Protein backbone atom coordinates (compact mmCIF):
# COMPACT_ATOMS: atom_id res chain seq x y z
CA UNK A 1 0.00 0.00 0.00
CA UNK A 2 1.24 3.49 -0.79
CA UNK A 3 2.32 5.92 1.91
CA UNK A 4 1.83 9.67 1.70
CA UNK A 5 4.38 11.63 3.71
CA UNK A 6 4.39 15.36 4.39
CA UNK A 7 7.52 17.05 5.68
CA UNK A 8 10.66 18.90 4.75
CA UNK A 9 12.85 18.38 1.73
CA UNK A 10 15.94 20.39 2.46
CA UNK A 11 19.65 20.97 2.22
CA UNK A 12 21.90 20.40 5.24
CA UNK A 13 25.45 21.38 5.98
CA UNK A 14 26.83 19.18 8.74
CA UNK A 15 30.11 18.69 10.53
CA UNK A 16 30.85 15.61 12.59
CA UNK A 17 34.08 14.06 13.89
CA UNK A 18 34.13 12.14 10.58
CA UNK A 19 34.19 15.24 8.40
CA UNK A 20 32.03 17.91 6.83
CA UNK A 21 29.49 18.03 4.00
CA UNK A 22 28.05 21.13 2.37
CA UNK A 23 24.42 21.25 1.29
CA UNK A 24 23.59 17.53 1.27
CA UNK A 25 20.10 16.59 0.12
CA UNK A 26 18.25 16.16 3.41
CA UNK A 27 15.03 16.93 5.29
CA UNK A 28 12.74 14.64 7.26
CA UNK A 29 10.53 13.75 4.29
CA UNK A 30 13.59 12.89 2.19
CA UNK A 31 15.08 10.52 4.77
CA UNK A 32 11.66 9.02 5.43
CA UNK A 33 10.86 8.51 1.72
CA UNK A 34 14.17 6.94 0.84
CA UNK A 35 13.99 4.53 3.78
CA UNK A 36 10.36 3.60 3.10
CA UNK A 37 10.95 3.23 -0.65
CA UNK A 38 12.68 -0.11 -0.09
CA UNK A 39 9.37 -1.49 1.21
CA UNK A 40 6.51 0.24 -0.60
CA UNK A 41 5.39 3.11 -2.85
CA UNK A 42 5.94 6.55 -1.36
CA UNK A 43 4.33 9.87 -2.25
CA UNK A 44 5.79 13.12 -0.93
CA UNK A 45 4.18 16.44 -0.06
CA UNK A 46 6.73 19.21 0.43
CA UNK A 47 7.97 22.49 -0.97
CA UNK A 48 11.40 23.18 -2.48
CA UNK A 49 13.10 26.22 -3.98
CA UNK A 50 14.95 26.87 -7.18
CA UNK A 51 18.08 25.21 -5.78
CA UNK A 52 16.33 21.84 -5.97
CA UNK A 53 17.48 20.72 -9.39
CA UNK A 54 17.75 17.71 -11.64
CA UNK A 55 20.38 16.11 -9.40
CA UNK A 56 18.06 16.09 -6.38
CA UNK A 57 15.03 15.07 -8.43
CA UNK A 58 17.03 12.12 -9.77
CA UNK A 59 17.50 10.76 -6.23
CA UNK A 60 13.73 10.53 -5.74
CA UNK A 61 13.21 9.17 -9.26
CA UNK A 62 15.80 6.43 -8.75
CA UNK A 63 13.69 5.18 -5.84
CA UNK A 64 10.39 5.55 -7.73
CA UNK A 65 9.19 8.08 -5.16
CA UNK A 66 6.19 10.06 -6.35
CA UNK A 67 7.14 13.75 -6.20
CA UNK A 68 4.05 15.24 -7.78
CA UNK A 69 3.25 16.68 -4.36
CA UNK A 70 6.59 18.52 -4.15
CA UNK A 71 5.81 22.12 -4.96
CA UNK A 72 8.47 24.30 -6.60
CA UNK A 73 8.46 27.81 -5.20
CA UNK A 74 10.56 30.89 -6.01
CA UNK A 75 13.48 31.24 -3.61
CA UNK A 76 15.66 28.77 -1.77
CA UNK A 77 14.86 25.42 -0.14
CA UNK A 78 14.84 24.93 3.60
CA UNK A 79 18.42 24.95 4.87
CA UNK A 80 19.85 23.66 8.14
CA UNK A 81 23.42 23.71 9.41
CA UNK A 82 24.50 21.73 12.41
CA UNK A 83 27.52 20.37 14.21
CA UNK A 84 28.10 17.13 16.08
CA UNK A 85 31.68 17.97 17.00
CA UNK A 86 30.88 18.35 20.69
CA UNK A 87 28.37 15.53 21.00
CA UNK A 88 27.77 12.90 18.34
CA UNK A 89 24.34 12.20 19.86
CA UNK A 90 22.99 15.72 19.79
CA UNK A 91 23.26 18.27 17.02
CA UNK A 92 24.16 21.85 17.79
CA UNK A 93 22.14 23.96 15.36
CA UNK A 94 24.30 26.64 13.76
CA UNK A 95 21.79 27.97 11.25
CA UNK A 96 18.18 27.39 10.21
CA UNK A 97 16.77 29.16 7.13
CA UNK A 98 13.13 28.28 6.54
CA UNK A 99 13.23 29.95 3.10
CA UNK A 100 10.34 28.63 0.94
CA UNK A 101 9.19 26.53 3.89
CA UNK A 102 8.04 29.67 5.71
CA UNK A 103 4.99 29.96 3.47
CA UNK A 104 4.38 26.24 2.98
CA UNK A 105 0.74 25.38 2.31
CA UNK A 106 0.60 21.60 1.82
CA UNK A 107 -1.46 20.59 -1.19
CA UNK A 108 -2.48 16.96 -1.64
CA UNK A 109 -2.47 15.85 -5.29
CA UNK A 110 -5.58 13.93 -6.34
CA UNK A 111 -3.34 11.02 -7.27
CA UNK A 112 -2.37 10.68 -3.58
CA UNK A 113 -5.94 10.47 -2.28
CA UNK A 114 -6.11 6.69 -2.13
CA UNK A 115 -3.05 6.45 0.18
CA UNK A 116 -4.14 4.46 3.21
CA UNK A 117 -0.92 5.16 5.12
CA UNK A 118 -0.15 8.72 6.12
CA UNK A 119 3.04 9.93 7.80
CA UNK A 120 3.23 13.42 9.26
CA UNK A 121 6.95 14.13 9.54
CA UNK A 122 8.29 16.76 11.92
CA UNK A 123 6.79 20.10 10.78
CA UNK A 124 4.50 22.76 12.27
CA UNK A 125 1.62 20.86 13.92
CA UNK A 126 -0.83 23.29 12.27
CA UNK A 127 0.27 21.90 8.90
CA UNK A 128 0.29 18.31 10.19
CA UNK A 129 -3.31 18.74 11.32
CA UNK A 130 -4.36 20.25 8.02
CA UNK A 131 -2.95 17.30 6.06
CA UNK A 132 -4.50 14.85 8.52
CA UNK A 133 -7.91 16.42 8.08
CA UNK A 134 -7.59 16.39 4.31
CA UNK A 135 -6.97 12.61 4.32
CA UNK A 136 -9.91 11.22 6.31
CA UNK A 137 -9.65 7.82 4.62
CA UNK A 138 -6.17 7.01 5.88
CA UNK A 139 -6.19 3.62 7.60
CA UNK A 140 -3.04 4.17 9.65
CA UNK A 141 -1.62 7.57 10.56
CA UNK A 142 1.74 8.08 12.21
CA UNK A 143 3.71 11.18 13.00
CA UNK A 144 6.83 12.70 14.47
CA UNK A 145 7.50 15.95 16.27
CA UNK A 146 10.32 17.66 18.18
CA UNK A 147 11.11 19.58 21.38
CA UNK A 148 10.44 22.96 19.73
CA UNK A 149 6.80 22.14 18.98
CA UNK A 150 6.30 20.45 22.35
CA UNK A 151 7.65 23.45 24.19
CA UNK A 152 6.17 26.35 22.28
CA UNK A 153 3.23 24.97 20.26
CA UNK A 154 1.71 22.39 22.58
CA UNK A 155 -2.00 23.21 22.03
CA UNK A 156 -1.62 22.76 18.25
CA UNK A 157 0.40 19.59 18.79
CA UNK A 158 -2.22 18.13 21.13
CA UNK A 159 -4.77 18.55 18.34
CA UNK A 160 -2.52 16.56 16.00
CA UNK A 161 -2.03 13.79 18.56
CA UNK A 162 -5.80 13.18 18.68
CA UNK A 163 -5.66 12.18 15.01
CA UNK A 164 -2.62 9.87 15.22
CA UNK A 165 -2.52 6.10 15.55
CA UNK A 166 1.22 6.10 16.24
CA UNK A 167 3.57 8.79 17.48
CA UNK A 168 7.35 8.39 17.07
CA UNK A 169 9.54 10.53 19.34
CA UNK A 170 12.72 10.20 21.38
CA UNK A 171 13.11 9.78 25.17
CA UNK A 172 13.62 13.45 25.91
CA UNK A 173 10.61 14.42 23.83
CA UNK A 174 8.42 11.75 25.46
CA UNK A 175 9.38 12.97 28.94
CA UNK A 176 8.90 16.60 27.97
CA UNK A 177 5.52 15.99 26.34
CA UNK A 178 4.22 13.97 29.30
CA UNK A 179 5.92 15.98 32.04
CA UNK A 180 7.02 12.70 33.61
CA UNK A 181 10.54 11.40 34.16
CA UNK A 182 9.69 7.69 34.25
CA UNK A 183 9.47 6.40 30.68
CA UNK A 184 6.65 3.91 31.25
CA UNK A 185 4.56 6.56 32.97
CA UNK A 186 5.45 9.08 30.26
CA UNK A 187 4.45 6.62 27.52
CA UNK A 188 1.04 6.02 29.10
CA UNK A 189 0.45 9.74 29.50
CA UNK A 190 1.34 10.38 25.84
CA UNK A 191 -0.99 7.61 24.65
CA UNK A 192 -3.76 9.19 26.73
CA UNK A 193 -3.36 12.21 24.45
CA UNK A 194 -4.49 10.22 21.42
CA UNK A 195 -2.09 7.75 19.79
CA UNK A 196 -2.80 4.11 20.58
CA UNK A 197 0.85 3.28 20.00
CA UNK A 198 4.02 5.12 20.83
CA UNK A 199 7.51 4.47 19.53
CA UNK A 200 10.21 5.92 21.76
CA UNK A 201 13.63 6.07 20.13
CA UNK A 202 16.60 5.65 22.47
CA UNK A 203 19.40 6.51 20.00
CA UNK A 204 22.23 3.99 20.30
CA UNK A 205 20.18 1.88 22.74
CA UNK A 206 17.38 1.07 20.29
CA UNK A 207 13.71 1.86 20.56
CA UNK A 208 10.60 0.76 22.46
CA UNK A 209 7.11 0.28 21.05
CA UNK A 210 4.35 0.89 23.61
CA UNK A 211 0.78 -0.25 23.08
CA UNK A 212 -2.14 1.40 24.86
CA UNK A 213 -3.65 -2.07 25.37
CA UNK A 214 -1.60 -5.24 25.64
CA UNK A 215 -1.85 -7.03 22.26
CA UNK A 216 -3.85 -10.25 22.25
CA UNK A 217 -1.79 -13.29 23.21
CA UNK A 218 0.94 -11.15 24.79
CA UNK A 219 1.85 -10.25 28.36
CA UNK A 220 3.76 -7.07 27.67
CA UNK A 221 2.45 -3.71 26.55
CA UNK A 222 5.87 -2.98 25.09
CA UNK A 223 8.50 -4.33 22.69
CA UNK A 224 12.18 -3.42 22.54
CA UNK A 225 14.22 -3.31 19.35
CA UNK A 226 18.00 -2.91 19.46
CA UNK A 227 20.14 -0.41 17.63
CA UNK A 228 23.19 -1.42 15.66
CA UNK A 229 26.44 -1.33 17.64
CA UNK A 230 28.22 0.99 15.18
CA UNK A 231 31.96 1.40 15.34
CA UNK A 232 31.67 4.80 13.77
CA UNK A 233 28.67 7.10 13.53
CA UNK A 234 29.54 9.23 10.51
CA UNK A 235 26.44 11.45 10.62
CA UNK A 236 23.41 10.79 12.84
CA UNK A 237 21.23 13.37 11.03
CA UNK A 238 18.02 11.80 9.81
CA UNK A 239 18.40 8.57 11.79
CA UNK A 240 15.00 9.10 13.42
CA UNK A 241 13.30 9.88 10.10
CA UNK A 242 14.94 6.83 8.53
CA UNK A 243 13.73 4.73 11.47
CA UNK A 244 10.23 6.04 10.80
CA UNK A 245 10.58 5.23 7.08
CA UNK A 246 11.67 1.65 7.72
CA UNK A 247 9.03 1.15 10.41
CA UNK A 248 6.11 2.63 8.49
CA UNK A 249 7.29 1.37 5.10
CA UNK A 250 7.35 -2.19 6.36
CA UNK A 251 3.90 -1.80 7.95
CA UNK A 252 2.48 -0.47 4.69
CA UNK A 253 3.95 -3.42 2.79
CA UNK A 254 2.06 -5.98 4.90
CA UNK A 255 -1.44 -7.30 4.28
CA UNK A 256 -2.38 -7.59 7.92
CA UNK A 257 -1.17 -5.44 10.82
CA UNK A 258 -0.72 -8.14 13.45
CA UNK A 259 1.30 -7.61 16.66
CA UNK A 260 4.10 -9.66 15.05
CA UNK A 261 4.16 -7.30 12.06
CA UNK A 262 4.60 -4.32 14.40
CA UNK A 263 7.55 -6.09 16.07
CA UNK A 264 9.23 -6.72 12.74
CA UNK A 265 8.50 -3.11 11.75
CA UNK A 266 10.42 -1.98 14.84
CA UNK A 267 13.39 -4.03 13.69
CA UNK A 268 13.21 -2.61 10.17
CA UNK A 269 13.02 0.87 11.67
CA UNK A 270 16.20 0.28 13.63
CA UNK A 271 17.86 -1.24 10.58
CA UNK A 272 17.16 1.81 8.43
CA UNK A 273 18.17 4.20 11.22
CA UNK A 274 21.49 2.40 11.55
CA UNK A 275 22.20 2.61 7.81
CA UNK A 276 21.47 6.34 7.82
CA UNK A 277 24.29 6.97 10.32
CA UNK A 278 26.91 5.17 8.29
CA UNK A 279 27.49 7.93 5.76
CA UNK A 280 26.77 11.65 5.41
CA UNK A 281 23.25 12.85 4.68
CA UNK A 282 21.17 10.39 2.67
CA UNK A 283 24.22 8.87 0.92
CA UNK A 284 23.85 5.43 2.47
CA UNK A 285 20.07 5.31 2.07
CA UNK A 286 20.42 6.03 -1.63
CA UNK A 287 22.48 2.97 -2.39
CA UNK A 288 20.91 0.16 -0.36
CA UNK A 289 19.38 -3.07 -1.56
CA UNK A 290 16.60 -5.05 0.02
CA UNK A 291 19.11 -7.89 0.45
CA UNK A 292 21.45 -5.69 2.52
CA UNK A 293 18.48 -4.55 4.59
CA UNK A 294 17.31 -8.09 5.28
CA UNK A 295 20.84 -9.19 6.11
CA UNK A 296 21.00 -6.52 8.80
CA UNK A 297 17.53 -7.49 9.98
CA UNK A 298 18.84 -11.02 10.59
CA UNK A 299 21.90 -9.61 12.31
CA UNK A 300 19.57 -7.70 14.65
CA UNK A 301 17.71 -10.91 15.38
CA UNK A 302 20.97 -12.61 16.32
CA UNK A 303 21.93 -9.59 18.41
CA UNK A 304 18.87 -9.95 20.64
CA UNK A 305 17.45 -13.47 20.42
CA UNK A 306 18.32 -16.24 22.81
CA UNK A 307 18.19 -19.07 20.30
CA UNK B 1 29.28 -24.94 40.97
CA UNK B 2 29.97 -22.67 43.91
CA UNK B 3 30.90 -19.01 43.46
CA UNK B 4 33.25 -17.14 45.75
CA UNK B 5 32.62 -13.41 45.88
CA UNK B 6 34.71 -10.76 47.55
CA UNK B 7 33.32 -7.30 48.19
CA UNK B 8 31.54 -5.07 50.62
CA UNK B 9 28.85 -6.03 53.10
CA UNK B 10 27.53 -2.74 54.36
CA UNK B 11 24.74 -0.54 55.63
CA UNK B 12 23.17 2.10 53.38
CA UNK B 13 20.91 5.01 54.10
CA UNK B 14 19.15 6.07 50.91
CA UNK B 15 16.55 8.58 49.91
CA UNK B 16 14.71 8.35 46.60
CA UNK B 17 11.48 9.93 45.31
CA UNK B 18 9.77 6.80 46.73
CA UNK B 19 10.94 7.39 50.31
CA UNK B 20 13.83 6.93 52.67
CA UNK B 21 15.42 3.97 54.45
CA UNK B 22 17.94 4.09 57.29
CA UNK B 23 20.77 1.62 57.49
CA UNK B 24 19.48 -1.10 55.10
CA UNK B 25 21.61 -4.19 54.74
CA UNK B 26 23.56 -3.48 51.55
CA UNK B 27 26.98 -3.62 49.90
CA UNK B 28 28.04 -5.04 46.55
CA UNK B 29 28.80 -8.53 47.89
CA UNK B 30 25.41 -8.65 49.64
CA UNK B 31 23.43 -7.76 46.51
CA UNK B 32 25.58 -10.10 44.42
CA UNK B 33 25.23 -13.02 46.85
CA UNK B 34 21.49 -12.73 47.26
CA UNK B 35 20.93 -12.51 43.49
CA UNK B 36 23.30 -15.42 42.75
CA UNK B 37 21.87 -17.56 45.58
CA UNK B 38 18.77 -18.32 43.48
CA UNK B 39 21.01 -20.14 41.00
CA UNK B 40 23.92 -21.71 42.86
CA UNK B 41 25.94 -21.90 46.12
CA UNK B 42 27.62 -18.66 47.10
CA UNK B 43 30.53 -18.03 49.44
CA UNK B 44 31.32 -14.53 50.64
CA UNK B 45 34.59 -12.88 51.62
CA UNK B 46 34.09 -9.56 53.40
CA UNK B 47 34.54 -7.75 56.69
CA UNK B 48 31.80 -6.41 58.94
CA UNK B 49 31.70 -4.57 62.26
CA UNK B 50 29.91 -5.11 65.51
CA UNK B 51 26.72 -3.61 64.07
CA UNK B 52 26.34 -6.69 61.85
CA UNK B 53 24.12 -8.80 64.07
CA UNK B 54 21.84 -11.80 64.09
CA UNK B 55 19.27 -10.01 61.92
CA UNK B 56 21.76 -9.44 59.11
CA UNK B 57 23.30 -12.90 59.47
CA UNK B 58 19.81 -14.40 59.17
CA UNK B 59 19.40 -12.88 55.70
CA UNK B 60 22.47 -14.72 54.44
CA UNK B 61 21.48 -17.91 56.26
CA UNK B 62 17.99 -17.87 54.76
CA UNK B 63 19.63 -18.03 51.32
CA UNK B 64 22.17 -20.67 52.34
CA UNK B 65 25.01 -18.26 51.61
CA UNK B 66 28.29 -19.36 53.12
CA UNK B 67 29.52 -16.57 55.40
CA UNK B 68 32.54 -18.26 56.91
CA UNK B 69 34.65 -15.77 54.94
CA UNK B 70 32.92 -12.76 56.54
CA UNK B 71 35.34 -11.51 59.15
CA UNK B 72 33.97 -9.76 62.25
CA UNK B 73 36.13 -6.81 63.25
CA UNK B 74 35.89 -4.34 66.13
CA UNK B 75 34.13 -1.14 65.04
CA UNK B 76 31.39 -0.36 62.58
CA UNK B 77 30.59 -1.83 59.17
CA UNK B 78 31.08 0.09 55.95
CA UNK B 79 28.38 2.78 55.69
CA UNK B 80 27.15 4.71 52.66
CA UNK B 81 24.52 7.38 52.43
CA UNK B 82 23.17 8.56 49.10
CA UNK B 83 20.31 10.42 47.51
CA UNK B 84 18.47 9.90 44.23
CA UNK B 85 16.14 12.85 44.74
CA UNK B 86 17.75 14.85 41.93
CA UNK B 87 18.37 12.00 39.52
CA UNK B 88 16.92 8.52 39.88
CA UNK B 89 19.66 7.18 37.60
CA UNK B 90 22.63 8.54 39.50
CA UNK B 91 23.23 8.56 43.22
CA UNK B 92 24.57 11.66 44.92
CA UNK B 93 26.87 10.42 47.68
CA UNK B 94 26.21 12.21 50.96
CA UNK B 95 28.50 10.17 53.21
CA UNK B 96 30.96 7.28 52.96
CA UNK B 97 32.43 5.77 56.11
CA UNK B 98 34.86 2.96 55.33
CA UNK B 99 34.99 1.97 59.01
CA UNK B 100 36.24 -1.66 59.34
CA UNK B 101 36.65 -1.78 55.57
CA UNK B 102 39.63 0.58 55.80
CA UNK B 103 41.85 -2.20 57.09
CA UNK B 104 40.27 -5.06 55.14
CA UNK B 105 42.68 -7.92 54.43
CA UNK B 106 40.68 -10.56 52.52
CA UNK B 107 41.24 -14.06 53.87
CA UNK B 108 40.07 -17.04 51.86
CA UNK B 109 38.73 -19.88 54.03
CA UNK B 110 40.06 -23.30 53.08
CA UNK B 111 36.48 -24.42 52.53
CA UNK B 112 36.23 -21.92 49.64
CA UNK B 113 39.30 -23.18 47.80
CA UNK B 114 37.45 -25.44 45.40
CA UNK B 115 35.26 -22.59 44.07
CA UNK B 116 35.68 -22.55 40.30
CA UNK B 117 33.80 -19.30 39.87
CA UNK B 118 35.25 -16.13 41.35
CA UNK B 119 33.61 -12.72 41.41
CA UNK B 120 35.60 -9.64 42.37
CA UNK B 121 32.98 -7.06 43.33
CA UNK B 122 33.76 -3.36 43.33
CA UNK B 123 36.54 -2.82 45.88
CA UNK B 124 40.13 -1.56 45.85
CA UNK B 125 41.82 -3.24 42.87
CA UNK B 126 44.80 -4.07 45.09
CA UNK B 127 42.49 -6.34 47.12
CA UNK B 128 40.81 -7.71 43.99
CA UNK B 129 44.20 -8.71 42.66
CA UNK B 130 45.24 -10.33 45.92
CA UNK B 131 42.12 -12.51 45.96
CA UNK B 132 42.56 -13.34 42.28
CA UNK B 133 46.15 -14.47 42.87
CA UNK B 134 45.10 -16.58 45.84
CA UNK B 135 42.59 -18.52 43.70
CA UNK B 136 44.66 -19.75 40.75
CA UNK B 137 42.29 -22.65 40.09
CA UNK B 138 39.26 -20.51 39.32
CA UNK B 139 37.80 -21.53 35.98
CA UNK B 140 35.92 -18.31 35.34
CA UNK B 141 36.73 -14.97 36.92
CA UNK B 142 34.57 -11.89 36.61
CA UNK B 143 34.75 -8.50 38.24
CA UNK B 144 33.28 -5.06 38.60
CA UNK B 145 34.83 -1.67 39.27
CA UNK B 146 33.80 2.00 39.36
CA UNK B 147 34.78 5.47 38.18
CA UNK B 148 36.82 6.17 41.35
CA UNK B 149 39.26 3.28 40.71
CA UNK B 150 39.40 4.02 36.97
CA UNK B 151 40.26 7.64 37.60
CA UNK B 152 42.65 7.45 40.53
CA UNK B 153 43.93 3.85 40.68
CA UNK B 154 44.28 2.90 37.05
CA UNK B 155 47.64 1.06 37.23
CA UNK B 156 46.34 -1.26 39.97
CA UNK B 157 43.10 -1.76 38.07
CA UNK B 158 44.95 -2.64 34.86
CA UNK B 159 46.72 -5.41 36.78
CA UNK B 160 43.33 -6.79 37.86
CA UNK B 161 41.96 -6.68 34.31
CA UNK B 162 44.75 -8.98 33.12
CA UNK B 163 43.38 -11.69 35.41
CA UNK B 164 39.70 -11.34 34.46
CA UNK B 165 37.67 -13.35 31.99
CA UNK B 166 34.73 -10.96 32.19
CA UNK B 167 34.47 -7.35 33.29
CA UNK B 168 31.08 -5.82 34.12
CA UNK B 169 30.86 -2.01 34.06
CA UNK B 170 28.46 0.69 32.90
CA UNK B 171 28.67 2.90 29.78
CA UNK B 172 30.35 5.83 31.50
CA UNK B 173 32.95 3.56 33.09
CA UNK B 174 33.64 1.77 29.80
CA UNK B 175 34.17 5.09 28.01
CA UNK B 176 36.32 6.43 30.84
CA UNK B 177 38.45 3.30 31.06
CA UNK B 178 39.03 3.15 27.30
CA UNK B 179 39.23 6.89 26.72
CA UNK B 180 36.90 6.44 23.74
CA UNK B 181 33.41 7.86 23.24
CA UNK B 182 32.15 5.22 20.79
CA UNK B 183 30.96 2.22 22.75
CA UNK B 184 32.06 -0.46 20.28
CA UNK B 185 35.54 1.05 20.10
CA UNK B 186 35.60 1.43 23.89
CA UNK B 187 34.58 -2.21 24.36
CA UNK B 188 37.38 -3.44 22.09
CA UNK B 189 39.92 -1.27 23.88
CA UNK B 190 38.82 -2.60 27.28
CA UNK B 191 39.03 -6.21 26.09
CA UNK B 192 42.55 -5.50 24.86
CA UNK B 193 43.38 -4.83 28.52
CA UNK B 194 42.63 -8.43 29.47
CA UNK B 195 39.03 -9.63 29.74
CA UNK B 196 37.83 -11.71 26.83
CA UNK B 197 34.27 -10.62 27.51
CA UNK B 198 32.82 -7.31 28.58
CA UNK B 199 29.34 -6.62 29.90
CA UNK B 200 28.34 -2.98 29.57
CA UNK B 201 25.27 -2.06 31.60
CA UNK B 202 23.07 0.69 30.12
CA UNK B 203 20.73 1.21 33.09
CA UNK B 204 17.12 1.39 31.93
CA UNK B 205 18.16 0.46 28.38
CA UNK B 206 19.55 -2.96 29.27
CA UNK B 207 23.06 -4.28 28.76
CA UNK B 208 25.40 -5.47 26.03
CA UNK B 209 27.73 -8.45 26.14
CA UNK B 210 30.83 -8.03 23.96
CA UNK B 211 33.07 -10.94 23.01
CA UNK B 212 36.68 -10.45 22.00
CA UNK B 213 36.19 -13.05 19.26
CA UNK B 214 32.87 -13.68 17.56
CA UNK B 215 31.45 -16.90 19.09
CA UNK B 216 31.39 -19.92 16.80
CA UNK B 217 28.26 -20.10 14.65
CA UNK B 218 27.46 -16.41 15.23
CA UNK B 219 27.90 -13.24 13.16
CA UNK B 220 27.89 -10.73 15.95
CA UNK B 221 30.53 -10.06 18.58
CA UNK B 222 27.81 -8.67 20.82
CA UNK B 223 24.46 -9.52 22.40
CA UNK B 224 21.88 -7.10 23.79
CA UNK B 225 19.65 -7.86 26.74
CA UNK B 226 16.78 -5.54 27.64
CA UNK B 227 15.97 -3.97 30.97
CA UNK B 228 12.53 -4.15 32.51
CA UNK B 229 10.31 -1.18 31.67
CA UNK B 230 9.58 -0.29 35.31
CA UNK B 231 6.75 2.06 36.18
CA UNK B 232 8.49 2.99 39.37
CA UNK B 233 12.14 2.65 40.35
CA UNK B 234 11.98 2.58 44.14
CA UNK B 235 15.73 2.33 44.76
CA UNK B 236 18.32 1.66 42.05
CA UNK B 237 21.12 0.98 44.53
CA UNK B 238 22.69 -2.42 43.91
CA UNK B 239 21.03 -2.97 40.53
CA UNK B 240 24.43 -3.50 38.90
CA UNK B 241 25.61 -5.91 41.61
CA UNK B 242 22.32 -7.80 41.35
CA UNK B 243 22.78 -7.95 37.58
CA UNK B 244 26.22 -9.44 38.18
CA UNK B 245 24.77 -11.95 40.66
CA UNK B 246 22.09 -13.15 38.26
CA UNK B 247 24.53 -13.25 35.34
CA UNK B 248 27.34 -15.06 37.14
CA UNK B 249 25.02 -17.20 39.26
CA UNK B 250 23.31 -18.55 36.17
CA UNK B 251 26.69 -19.22 34.48
CA UNK B 252 27.93 -21.12 37.54
CA UNK B 253 24.77 -23.25 37.54
CA UNK B 254 25.37 -24.54 34.01
CA UNK B 255 27.41 -27.56 32.99
CA UNK B 256 28.75 -26.05 29.79
CA UNK B 257 29.51 -22.41 29.07
CA UNK B 258 28.19 -22.23 25.51
CA UNK B 259 27.45 -18.92 23.72
CA UNK B 260 23.74 -19.64 24.32
CA UNK B 261 24.36 -19.95 28.06
CA UNK B 262 26.04 -16.52 28.08
CA UNK B 263 23.00 -15.05 26.32
CA UNK B 264 20.62 -16.49 28.87
CA UNK B 265 22.95 -15.31 31.64
CA UNK B 266 22.58 -11.75 30.30
CA UNK B 267 18.81 -12.09 30.56
CA UNK B 268 19.02 -13.43 34.12
CA UNK B 269 21.34 -10.54 34.98
CA UNK B 270 18.79 -8.03 33.72
CA UNK B 271 16.01 -9.89 35.52
CA UNK B 272 17.79 -9.70 38.89
CA UNK B 273 18.79 -6.06 38.32
CA UNK B 274 15.16 -5.19 37.66
CA UNK B 275 13.94 -6.90 40.83
CA UNK B 276 16.54 -5.06 42.91
CA UNK B 277 15.05 -1.68 41.88
CA UNK B 278 11.53 -2.56 42.92
CA UNK B 279 12.02 -2.10 46.66
CA UNK B 280 14.54 -0.48 49.00
CA UNK B 281 17.92 -2.08 49.60
CA UNK B 282 17.93 -5.85 49.26
CA UNK B 283 14.27 -6.19 50.32
CA UNK B 284 13.03 -7.51 47.00
CA UNK B 285 16.01 -9.82 46.49
CA UNK B 286 15.37 -11.42 49.86
CA UNK B 287 11.89 -12.63 49.04
CA UNK B 288 12.09 -13.92 45.48
CA UNK B 289 11.39 -17.39 44.17
CA UNK B 290 12.95 -19.13 41.21
CA UNK B 291 9.44 -19.24 39.70
CA UNK B 292 9.10 -15.45 39.86
CA UNK B 293 12.57 -15.12 38.35
CA UNK B 294 11.77 -17.46 35.47
CA UNK B 295 8.45 -15.73 34.87
CA UNK B 296 10.27 -12.45 34.39
CA UNK B 297 12.84 -14.18 32.19
CA UNK B 298 10.00 -15.24 29.89
CA UNK B 299 8.57 -11.74 30.00
CA UNK B 300 11.98 -10.45 28.84
CA UNK B 301 11.94 -12.93 26.00
CA UNK B 302 8.54 -11.67 24.89
CA UNK B 303 9.75 -8.09 25.26
CA UNK B 304 12.52 -8.62 22.70
CA UNK B 305 11.76 -11.60 20.50
CA UNK B 306 10.06 -11.39 17.14
CA UNK B 307 8.17 -14.66 17.39
In brief, what are we looking at here?
By secondary structure, the first copy, chain A, is of the alpha/beta class. Chain A is built from eleven helices and 13 strands.
**Stretches of chain A where pLDDT falls below 50 for ≥5 residues?**
none
The tally of beta strands of chain A, per DSSP, is: 13
Structural class per helix/strand content of chain A? alpha/beta
Query: What sort of overall outline of chain A do the alpha carbons produce when their principal axes are compared?
Result: globular
Rg from Cα of chain A: 18 Å
**Strand order across the biggest sheet of chain A?**
5-4-1-8-9-10-11-12-13
Largest sheet of chain A: 9 strands, mixed
Helix percent band of chain A: 25-40%
The number of helical segments of chain A is 11
- Largest chain interface and its two residue counts? A-B, 35 and 35 residues
How would you describe this structure to a colleague?
The structure is a homodimer of 307-residue chains. With 307 residues, chain A is of the alpha/beta class. The first copy, chain A, is built from 11 helices and 13 strands. In chain A, strands 5-4-1-8-9-10-11-12-13 form a 9-stranded mixed sheet, with helices on both faces. In chain A, strands 3-2-6-7 form a 4-stranded mixed sheet. In chain A, strand 8, helix 3 (125-133) and strand 9 form a beta-alpha-beta unit. The longest helix of chain A is centred in the last third of the chain and has 18 residues, at 259-276. The first copy, chain A, is globular. Chain A starts with a strand and ends with a helix. The relative contact order of chain A is 0.15. The A-B interface holds A 88, 181-185, 202, 204-206, 208, 218-220, 222-224, 226, 229-233, 260, 263-264, 267, 299, 301-307 and B 88, 181-185, 202, 204-206, 208, 218-220, 222-224, 226, 229-233, 260, 263-264, 267, 299, 301-307.
Amino acid sequence: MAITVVGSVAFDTVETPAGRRERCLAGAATYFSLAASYFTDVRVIAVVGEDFGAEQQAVFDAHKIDTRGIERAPGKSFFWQGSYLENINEAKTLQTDLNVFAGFEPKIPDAYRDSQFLFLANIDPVLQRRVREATPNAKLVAGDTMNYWIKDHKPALLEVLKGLDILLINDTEARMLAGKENLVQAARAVMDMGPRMLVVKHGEYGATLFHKSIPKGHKSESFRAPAMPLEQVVDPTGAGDSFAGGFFGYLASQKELTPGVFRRAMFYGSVMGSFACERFGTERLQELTREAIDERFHFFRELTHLD
